[in-house]
Amino acid sequence: MIADECKKIKNNFIDEIKNCSEAKCLSDIKIRYLGRKGIVSSLFKSISSLTQEERKTGGRELNLLKEHIEKTVREKESELRQKVSPASFFDPTLTGEKTDIPGNHPLKAVMNSIIYIFTAMGFGIAYGPEIEENYYNFTALNFPENHPARDMHDTLYLKEKDTLLRTHTSPVQIRTMEKHAPPYKFIAPGKCYRRDTIDASHSPVFHQVEGFMVDRDISFADLKGVLDEFARRIFEGSQDIKTRFRPSFFPFTEPSAEMDIMCSICRGKGCSSCSGKGWLEILGAGMVDPEVFRYCKVDPDKWQGFAFGMGVERIAMLKYGISDMRLFFQNDLRFLRQF
Ligand code: DAH
User: Using one digit for the tens of pLDDT, what is the confidence trace for 174-224?
Assistant: First the structure.
């Protein structure tokens, strides 16, 4: 009789599930009773060999058995799940795991500091294209036609010889003067490109921040004041930072200068960090050449001012004591995690 059979199975099942206290055992029971080739399935199959009458009652019994087993398994599953409640494996008193995400990239951090320092001094921010025209990169900045910087060896030209990857951020001076009337007071941060082979102090891609301040009455003393203040702030920590200005030459400034800071390691005496000079160059600067104003139709008799340009990699290397520029671009986490 199928009813007796069902009863026997039910009793066995109840015994087994009572003694079951872990997930593996429950899953075995589930497969054995409810699986495709399990006990319940094979009983259902055997129904076909019964008489019509037996089939009716047997079918009902079997369905009840199946429902009972399914329901009990479900209850047992949820009971076992609760047993492995978070409290049994999660200890809220343990300290958290430190995430391994490095902070700001050192170049980004220095770039942000430079921008912060100048905007705090009232400078705005201007941007220009990295794919630049020869005119803006060289001609309007008063580079003579045969200037070596225009050479194929130094500049990455694009297909048409009139376009190139900008070699410095100075063209933003020209673009801004073309678009706006004076006075001007802005910095222009961005990427620059040169045909350099990568080594400890060169990279074909690097970052610069240009500065430009033009008004009715701007003198070299203003330039010194602004850049001294910048040096003090960017190298904060070395309170007694000393600067000096050396005469230099750039086609777009007259007079031109380079600014050095005193080497913090030897304090001006000369050591291996500063190649024995005692001073480290940090930027180029000068009074805007009247020729540049003329290219932009700004009257040099009415307006004067200064410009400066600095390499962000160089400042970051000095600030953090990094001796190899390649470290900035290798994305080695052991390096980046230090910032
Ligand atoms: N553009 C120069 C360079 O890349 C840097 C520079 C020097 C910018 C003097 C200036 C400046 O604005 O006055 O080497």
Answer: 999 999 999 999 999 999 999 999 999 899 999 999 999 999 999 999 999
User: How many A from CA of 334 to the centre of ligand 1?
Assistant: 33
With a 6 A CB cut-off, is 141 part of the ligand 1 pocket? no
Rounded-to-integer distance, Cα 306 and Cα 288, Å? 5
Going by DSSP bridges, is the β-strand pair 205-215/184-193 parallel, antiparallel, or unpaired?
A: antiparallel
CATH of the domain at 136: 3.30.930.10
Distance CA(26)–CA(128), nearest Å, equals: 69
| 286 close to ligand 1 (CB < 6 Angstrom) | yes
Residue 254 belongs to what domain range?
106-336
Q: Is residue 124 in a domain? A: yes
Question: How close is the Cα of 195 to the center of ligand 1, in Å?
Answer: 17
Q: Are 279 and 244 in contact (CB under 8 A)?
A: yes
User: Cβ(170) to ligand 1 under 6 A?
Assistant: yes
Residues 335 and 326: their CA atoms lie apart, in Å, by: 11
Torsion sign, CA atoms 75, 81, 82, 83: positive
Pocket test for ligand 1, best of 154, 168, 306, 310 (most atoms within 8 A of CB): 168
> Is any ligand 1 atom within 6 A of the Cβ of residue 210?
yes
Residues in a beta bridge with 259: 245, 283
Span 1-51, pLDDT tens digits:
788 888 999 999 999 999 888 889 999 999 999 999 999 998 888 888 888
The residue contributing the CA closest to ligand 1 atom 6 is 309
pTM exceeds 0.90, yes or no: no
Q: How many domains does the chain have?
A: 2
Ligand 1, atom nearest to 169 Cα? 1
Measure the CA–CA gap between 14 and 39, rounded to whole angstroms.
14
CA of 285 to the centre of ligand 1 (A): 6
Shared domain check, 66 and 112: no
